[in-house]
Amino acid sequence: MPSPPVVVLDNGGSTIKAGVVVPNSGDDVDNLESHGVTLKPRTIVNAVIRSKGDKKTYFGHELEQCRDFSSLHYRLPFERGFLTDWDAQKAVWDGLFSQLLKVEPADHSLLITEPYFNLPNIQDVYDQFVFEEYEFQSYLRCAPAALLPFGSLFGSGLPAPECMLIVDSGFSFTHIVPLMNGKVLWKSVRRLDVGGKLMTNHLKELVSFRQWNMMDETHIVNDVKEKCCYVTAHFGADLETCRKDPKRNEIVQEYVLPNFADNRPGRVKAPIEVLAEGDQVLVMNNERFAVPELLFRPTDIGLSQSGISRTIAEAISTLPQDVQGLFWANIGLVGGNVKFPGFRQRLADELRSLAPIQYEVHIHESSDPIVESWLAGAAFARREPSVFSQHVVTRAEYQEGGSNACRRKFPGWMARAGSNFNAGEQNADSLAEVHGDAIIATTTGRRAKADARMKASTRGKARAKQGG
User: Fold this and answer.
1) Does the first or last residue of the chain, that is N or C, have fewer Cβ atoms within 10 Å of its Cβ?
2) Where is this region: Disordered (predicted)?
């Protein structure tokens, strides 16, 4: 019996990335299109939005029809990184499945991402919605980073490295997630309480205090953040530049606020552009780099946490000493916040200063980090249908065992967080088991041993050089 099509759902706190995958359809573009499969997901807002301008309510994908984005009121299914408003989530999913994807859930399987450290009672509601509300044939629930060994973040067409460290900086939080042989090492996962939502809210407060009152303009301020902000490599020097006269200040930018009466979107003003009568301008000076700086210095707003670079170093320090070099050499970036210009270079510079001298530091980034987890999940469902089918929970299994059946297949972080690390227990010659939030690695044990010997040799040469 052929495997059913798989709905792949990267269900984030800000956006949903969704699409349909046909197992065994391969990687040929023409073959994929003949099956009605898109190569990239549809991305929609994960919220129920009320517009004060046209007095309409928009559910998820319907926001594309909105023409007045001023003073939008967002009802978010996610609060503090966890799915808590299931009525709002169902309203978004209903439109997504029936209108956008045009699928009948009963004829499909589902692969869905869940938050890191998701709570057991929330996981039970996931199970109930999937099987009782939508009646999917089967489903697999996992953390986003667990899918990345199947993607091309670390090189297209290459096997995933045995050891990798994922920096997932999203809407609510930034997580540092080490994986070994395809398994999430939950004991070393770290969370930084800085995400896109916090930075947008911080920018709203800054511009509202200094210029226009933008506290109700979440959509507009988020657009300002994405178009104007960047990560600086020299915070002090840029701050001095911002004190200069605006005419001699190369940092200052002017953002022309949208005019919804004329259907003109917001934009960054070109240096020689002449503004039309009635245009309102938001002047972005040190706000451009002060907002993303929160990722590197959360203490700027009173958070008693280390920045992202030191958090990465601390996470790696908890891993077995003999494989730490492999994690330093395989750092992958996903999530919307890593798209800030200058982010990768600043992170690389700081990590190089924190890493032991004998280790290489290599950072991998995606051309589209927002959809990278979805692309990896789609590749898994498409290329490995036999493996996928072994680890899903079917509707029949759920009807017999309830959420206990899902707990057995998806034991998750609580079952693994207290376990000790033992690299010798991992068998890289075969597919690694799925243990809830970790999938598989397909690389060989011989390659792992060769990499370890190479790293050991490099360490020995570095010590000899230092001793000389």
Assistant:
1) N
2) 449-468
Task: Please tell me the predicted confidence (pLDDT) of residue 25.
Answer: 65
Give the span between the Cα atoms of 224 and 267, in whole angstroms: 8
Q: Which CATH architecture has domain 196-293?
A: Alpha-Beta Complex (3.90)
6-153+370-416 maps to which CATH number?
Answer: 3.30.420.40
Rounded Cα distance, 331 and 355, in Å: 12
**Cβ–Cβ < 8 Å for 15, 46:** yes
Residue 26 confidence (pLDDT): 58
| CB-CB contact of 176 with 169 (8 Å) | no
Q: How many CB atoms lie within 10 A of CB 289?
A: 24
Domain boundaries, the chain: 6-153+370-416, 196-293
362-405 pLDDT per residue, tens:
999 999 999 999 999 999 999 888 889 988 999 999 999 999 99
Tens of pLDDT, residues 37-52: 557 899 999 999 999 8
pLDDT at 264: 80
Q: Which of 62, 181, 171, 68 is nearest to 430 (CA)?
A: 181
- Residue 459 or residue 256, greater confidence: 256
> Look-up: residue for tokens 């029809």?
65
Q: 123-131 long-range CB contacts below 8 Å, 24 or more apart? A: 123/403, 123/406, 123/407, 123/410, 123/412, 124/403, 124/406, 125/83, 125/86, 126/83, 127/393, 127/398, 127/402, 127/403, 127/406, 128/403, 129/86, 129/89, 129/90, 131/395, 131/398, 131/399
